[in-house]
Amino acid sequence: MARRNALMARWARVLVLGLLASGAASADEAAQPAQGTQAGTQAGTHWTFGSTPLWQDEFDGEGVPDPARWSYDTGGHGWGNNELQYYTDKPANAFVSDGLLTIVAHRQRAGKLRYSSARLVSRGKGDFRYGRVEFRARLPVARGSWPALWMLPTDNKYGNWPRSGEIDIMEHVGFDRGVVHQTVHTQAYNHTKGTQRAAQKRVEELDTKFHRYRVDWTPDYIHGYIDDEKVFEFANEGTGPDAWPFDQRFHLLMNLAVGGNWAGQQGVDDEAFPIWMEVDYVRVYPLENAPQ
C-alpha cells in the first residue's frame, strides 16, 4: 500500500507538469555498479571493459523519457507471444520522475485490448557492438506481469528472428515470483526448437529492492550477472551465425508486457493493476579492445 500511495503522489506531481502519468516510489540507496577495468579470458584473448560509460541514462529530470535516447514501439498485435497489452507512447505508461523511469501497465481499454503499457527502445539512438550493459531496476510481481530488459539486433544482419539473435538481460514472469531469467536466442538455440540457452536465479525482494542486471558481451562470450554474481554463460562456438549472430549492432529495450504464452499461463490478476517497473539507470561500458 505504501508503494501504491507513493506512486499516486508522484503521478499527481507529474500531472502538475501537464502530463498524464502514473508513478512509483523513490529509488533505494544506490549500490554502485561494478566498474573499473575488469577482464575475462577465453579463446586466448584478454577482454577489458572501460570504467566510464559510453552511453547511459540516469533518468534525471521530470517528464517523458529523453527523446534523444529513446523511442517507442507501439501497437497491440500480440508481439509474437499473444500478449494482452497495447503499447503506447503516452506518459501515462512511461515517464521520468525522482531519478527513475517508470513503465506502468494499466487495466484500461487501449484499442481492442484491455491493458495498456509501454515498450521503450534505443534503436538508432543507442546501438552497440560488444560491451558491458547494466540496468538497475525494481520489478512488479503480479500474476500475469512480464517485465523485460533486453537487446535486439539493429540491422538484422542474418535475417529475422531468431536468425539475428536476441539477448535477454532480465525477464521475470509474475506467476513464478522471484525467479529471474537470462537468455540468448539464435537460429540454433531457441525455445521453438527446445534448444534455448538460459539460466535462472531466485532474487529475493525484487519488487521491494533494486537489483542490478547485466551482461558482458565480447566476441568470445556473453556472460550474465545479477548483483555481480555470474548467472549465465554462452560461448561463441566458432561455427557461424546460426549459433553466434552476436557480431553486429544491438539496441536496448525496456518493456512491461501483460499475459501471453509464457506470463499468462496462470492468468492475469486484474486486482493488482496498475503495475509498474522502475529503472534507476542504464549504463553501457565499452569493450576497450573490441575488434574494428
Automatic annotation (TrEMBL):
Highest taxon of the lineage: Bacteria
PROSITE patterns the record matches: GH16_2
Name recorded for this polypeptide: Licheninase
Keyword Nucleus: no
Residue ranges constituting the GH16 domain according to the UniProt record: 45-290
GO molecular function term, any single one: licheninase activity
Keywords: Glycosidase, Hydrolase, Signal
InterPro entries, per the entry: Beta-glucanase-like, ConA-like_dom_sf, Glycosyl_Hydrlase_16
Span of the signal peptide: 1-27
CDD domains referenced in this protein's UniProt entry, alphabetically: GH16_laminarinase_like (cd08023)
Single Gene Ontology BP annotation: carbohydrate metabolic process
Family, per entry: Belongs to the glycosyl hydrolase 16 family.
EC number(s) given by UniProt: 3.2.1.73
